[in-house]
Amino acid sequence: MLANYLIGLREGVEAALIVSILVAYLVRTGRTGSPVRWVWIGVGTAIAVSILFAAGLSLTSEAMTERAEALFAGVASLAAVVFVTWMVFWMKKTARNIRGELQGKLDSAVDVGVVAIALVAFVAVIREGLETSLFLWTAARATGDGASALIGGLLGLATAVVLGWLFYRGALRINLATFFTWTGVALIIIAGGVLSYAVHEFQEIGLIPGEDALAFDASAAIPMDSWYGELLRGFVNWSSNPSWLQVIAWVVYVAIVMTLFFRSSRSAPDRPQAQDPSQSTQAVSQSQ
Has residue 78 got a pLDDT over 60? Predict the structure, then answer.
């Protein structure tokens, strides 16, 4: 549940931050009423499409044979790893100037019309929604506990909604660069577990060899039905008897991606910190 909570929190904060920036900018520039309503229409549509996408994943997998379902789960897991890895690096790069980029797109959309405003909001949020749906589905499939994955993800999203509201109202200020750095580290570790699960699925159906070449058997020391076994399985997709290829995939992925992640942090030039959405709200208050 912890891993799914972090996924929901991270993706939800990104979406909440985007919505806060869009709404605060429209309010600050006096574009209230219809433009703000169309932002929420775009956001609502993105949420609906994300829910339908998650439902489609579940229905598709349930209609397949056992072998086809394992193949589908493995491919979906690989896609989730790719999307999350890209998202971690993208947010690390754009966290400092996301406000300016969104405001520029919104200014152009206002000139076109309200439908364009909804489209900007939809495109900005749908990426987070689809990534969340895909990653939570693969996490649920890997752990075999769909209810726990759903509850953890929803709790993370609910926390993100509260944080987004506090950002907008100016009641909360956090260092977003630090937040996205450390949640990015957690997601890289989680994604390594999802990659290991994909390898297991491909080995199970004979697509790649090595299923019986076990790296170790820790079932006696860490029973899978123990609380700490459940915690490890939920966070890093722990298996008490993984194959060597699963272990190698996890270690190599985490080592390479983590190294590149922190190297990009050190090499990135210093830029002025992006204005918090709450500052836009405060500007409105002071002008009234």
Answer: yes
